[in-house]
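Request: When convenient, would you put together a sequence paired with its structure tokens?
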Amino acid sequence: MRRLALLAAAGATALAVGVAIPARALIVFDPNNYVQNVLTAARELQQINNQITSLQNEAQMLINQAKNLANLPYSSLQQLLSSIQRTQQLLAQAQRIAYDVQEIDRAFSTSYAPATSNQSNQLLVANAQARWQNSYAATQDALRVQAGIVGNLDTNRIQTSALVTSSQGATGALQATQAGNQILALQAHQLADLTAAVAAQGRAQSLEAAQRAVAQDQGREQLKRFLTPGQGYQSSNVQMFH
């Protein structure tokens, strides 16, 4: 009996196992479907990576555009304008015959005009004194302009160094262009200073040359009067300004 009971239990166990096995057999692995799913996921991942790369490139483009449009943080404009204004003020302070065409014409029609026989001795002396004073003042003006320009050299040196440094450290096209423009402005300012110095020195030399030329003409007129009898020439009025 015991043996029959064991056989019955074994048969029941086998039946239970036999019933459970078909239920597990419903889960079937399809390799083709698995490969397709993996490929689909890989393609989607690649698309996401491409989108991320595109967004990174666009962000970098925006950063570069921002750099190219960024203004140069340094400006030498105010310093250059101040230097130019100082030079202009020195030129505007020119004494006596200044940089004015009408004033020059008036002077050369009066005190620098050739001596004539109908001019009095007193007028000749007064004109000679005026010419000497003009030359003296022009020489002083030229020295003052030159001193002012020499004073600008230190400002120019500082600005040149700052602009070159800014140009080398420019982060974008706009900054580099602005630095280059300011360097050109500095060079234009230096040329303006040079022009002012040449003009002031030329003014002094021209007035000195005109003084010598008129003095020679006046000397001939004075000698003529001295040698001509009856002119009533006073020896105390014989004054030559060379």
